[in-house]
Every structure is written in structure tokens, then in C-alpha cells.
């Protein structure tokens, strides 16, 4: 294995590890869904890591053409993945909910486990927990309903396929 192959393997492995670690702060295992947004975030973090690491270790990598290819390629990957995260242009209904469920789960985890002593802040944290739990249930129901019955496109369908009441808003 050449040192460039090893370098790229290190970047790919680290990027995959970062994607996995983004789910470590979800509250519950069943709140983990693949998220395109998190995937793009891992990609842009990996691309910046490649640039930083190569620049720090340039004396170990003597091939200027390969170095420039890695730097420019990583820069391009960063710009594209950052655009995809910021624009959300590839994110539709199901992908949006699959990204939002882990996001809401993080709010539950931090609200429930924070060392809160002010009664007003505790009240707010409890309200956040209740709202996020309700919204996760609603999104899971919608994901299942859309998978089973397709998307709702008309007002008549909205009436016939209403989301169950999962608690106070």
C-alpha cells in the first residue's frame, strides 16, 4: 500500500467514523435514521480534514501533482457537500423527516440530562422534551404512512389520512 493510498484510506475511514459518531448523541436507538444531511456533513468534514492533514504532513508526501490533486479535489468536494447541506436541494419529505428525527432526539437528550437548577429553565426543558417526543412520533407515523400509502397530494386526501393526535403541541 502506497503512502497516498494509506492517506486516502485514513480519510475515508475517519469520514465514516465521523458519520457514525454524529448519531452517538441521539436519545434513543429507534431515533436513528440515515440522514443525507449528516452524510453531506461528514463528507465536508472529511474533505477539510484531508486538506489540513496533507498540509501538516507535506514533507511526508513528495509528489506535488498528487498533493495538488488531493488539495483541489478535497476543496471541490468540500464546496459541493457544503452546498448540499446549506441548500438542502436533495432533501424531500422522507429525507427531511429522517434528518429531523435524530435532530429532535438530540434536543431530548440535552434537555433531559442537563444539570438544570432554575425552575423556569427546567419548565422550558420539559416543554421541549414533550414537543420533540410528539413530533418524533408524528414523523415516524408519516414515514410509515407515506411508505405504505404514498404521499398526500390533495385536500381530500388530507382529510382521509389525518395524522393521529400524539399529544399536546
Automatic annotation (TrEMBL):
Domain of life: Bacteria
Organism whose genome encodes this protein: Alteromonas naphthalenivorans
Gene3D superfamilies the UniProt entry points to: 1.20.1260.10
Protein name, UniProt field: DUF305 domain-containing protein
Pfam families (alphabetical): DUF305
Key words, A-Z: Membrane, Transmembrane, Transmembrane helix
Signal peptide segment: none
InterPro entries: DUF305_CopM-like (IPR005183), Ferritin-like (IPR012347)
Residue span(s) of domain DUF305: 93-154
Membrane-traversing stretches: 7-27, 39-61, 68-85
Amino acid at each position: 500500500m502506497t503512502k497516498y493510498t494509506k492517506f486516502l484510506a485514513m480519510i475515508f475511514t475517519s469520514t465514516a467514523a465521523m458519520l457514525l459518531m454524529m448519531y452517538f448523541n441521539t436519545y434513543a436507538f429507534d431515533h436513528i435514521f440515515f440522514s443525507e444531511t449528516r452524510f453531506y456533513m461528514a463528507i465536508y468534514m472529511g474533505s477539510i480534514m484531508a486538506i489540513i492533514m496533507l498540509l501538516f504532513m507535506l514533507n511526508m508526501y513528495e509528489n506535488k501533482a498528487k498533493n495538488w490533486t488531493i488539495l483541489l479535489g478535497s476543496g471541490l468536494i468540500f464546496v459541493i457537500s457544503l452546498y448540499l447541506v446549506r441548500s438542502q436541494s436533495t432533501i424531500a419529505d422522507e429525507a427531511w423527516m429522517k434528518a429531523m428525527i435524530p435532530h429532535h432526539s438530540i434536543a431530548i437528550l440535552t434537555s433531559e440530562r442537563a444539570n438544570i437548577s432554575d425552575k423556569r429553565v427546567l419548565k422550558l426543558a420539559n416543554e421541549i422534551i414533550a414537543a420533540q417526543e410528539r413530533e418524533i412520533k408524528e414523523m415516524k407515523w408519516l414515514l410509515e404512512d407515506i411508505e405504505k400509502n404514498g404521499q398526500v397530494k390533495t385536500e381530500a386526501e388530507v382529510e382521509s389520512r389525518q395524522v393521529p393526535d400524539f399529544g399536546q403541541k
